[in-house]
Amino acid sequence: MTKVGAHVSIAGGVANAPGNAYDLKCECFQLFTRSPRGGQRKEIDLEKFFEDCQKYNFEIGKDYIVHSPYYINLASADEKIYQNSIRILQDELKVASEIKCPYVITHLGSAKDQDKKVAQKRVLAGLVAIYKDYQNSAMLTLEIAAGSGNVMGVDLDEFKFYFDELKKIGIEVGFCFDTCHAFAGGYDLRTSEKVQEVFREIDQKIGLKNLKCIHFNDSKTEFNSKKDRHEHIGKGSIGEIGLKSVAQEAQKLGINIYLETNHDQIKEDLILTKSFNEAKRTR
Fold first, then answer.
1. Structural domains of the chain in order of their starting residue, each with its CATH number
2. pTM to 2 decimal places
3. Predicted confidence (pLDDT) per residue in 225-244, tens digit
4. Are 162 and 117 in contact (CB under 8 A)?
5. Cα-atom radius of gyration of the chain, to the nearest Å?
């Protein structure tokens, strides 16, 4: 069954995330393992984390995902930034595996002044480096971007390149579809027909089996704006009809939905999103 949750705070420590998710009435949750802006990661109280997952009825190894820090840039021409991005993602995968998290979601970064094709090859090389001698269980999951600047990962043809090339050498990664990002990047989601077209394209180019989760956000900006501005569910340019259709596609696939809307109305957003899925829920 598709579960509905949100990105939750780790204030006071990562081990507080399950309790914070429960307080919002989430069925699943997304978290950072460190500050998304920078700084060292703190040790995680694994015993408390697992105890609270059980206490609050979150299935260990299934009902939560990790999001990498915002500063990751696998396309950077700056070698220090590039190598640091590889190192941090390796560490995120290690930590995610320690908390038995299945997926680490990451943005790919920005090409900036580089040619896009050159930057794509740099991203690919970075992904290969991350998986060198890989011994952990978590899967790196690549998120679609909105398209501002010279950002990477905006269209499905680019993701097809990564998935095809990685498959040739036996590396498996996942795909995260963000509704706001995709809409801003040029994928129309305002009607059921348009949503079905987009999901058919995902299947044709990278395979729906590789779609591991959905970031569920309305958009403050208009279609194809190239701007990443999340809006509360049903109150933006995508609208309730389109988002409900996305939720129904997620339900068909049995993948979870994670909201990233502002927490001033997150409870209302969760209630509405849950109503898009008619299956019985636990909370």
1. 4-275 (3.20.20.150)
2. 0.96
3. 999 999 999 999 999 999 99
4. no
5. 18
